[in-house]
TrEMBL record:
The lineage of its organism: Eukaryota, Metazoa, Ecdysozoa, Arthropoda, Crustacea. This is Core-binding (CB) domain-containing protein. InterPro entries: Integrase_recombinase_N (IPR010998). GO terms for molecular function: DNA binding. SUPFAM superfamilies: lambda integrase-like, N-terminal domain. Keywords: DNA-binding.
């Protein structure tokens, strides 16, 4: 049963989740806590503290969200607490607003027709009189 349950995730995901669990256990140990201290009342708060700590280290929102996902099932199975609660959802929303994800810049707009006109322009044509650098740029 356990081997089939372990197939729920790809090996790379399982490895990543195990490393997050290890980070979480170290976080608990640094604060003098154990998994036995994870009561239903305190569990979500401890997890949110863990996520806030890693956010303060400069980890991006998406990384923090993956940490929460990685912790969900181990905490559910060991402590009987589902950390996907309204409180943790509000925490994640606040974290998103506090440190929004970096968005990539949109691709610049260009037109194939404009590019072909540029390559047929005086810098590149006639080929016989174009500089070597212009020919390299054209290719």
């Amino acid at each position: 049963t356990i081997s089939i349950l372990c197939l729920a995730h790809k090996p790379s995901t399982t490895s990543q989740y195990q490393s997050v669990w290890s980070l979480f256990l170290n976080f608990l140990a640094d604060r003098g806590l154990t998994s036995l201290d994870m009561t239903e009342v305190s569990c979500v708060g401890i997890v949110c503290d863990f996520l806030a700590y890693h956010s303060s280290l400069g980890k991006q929102y998406r990384t923090i969200a993956s940490y929460r996902s990685a912790l969900r099932h181990p905490i559910l199975f060991t402590c009987g607490v589902d950390i996907r609660s309204e409180a943790s959802d509000l925490f994640m929303r606040g974290l998103f607003n506090f440190h929004p994800p970096v968005r990539s810049r949109p691709m610049p707009l260009w037109s194939l027709a404009s590019l072909l006109d540029f390559l047929c322009g005086p810098t590149f044509e006639p080929l016989e009189s174009a500089s070597f650098q212009a020919l390299v740029r054209k290719t």
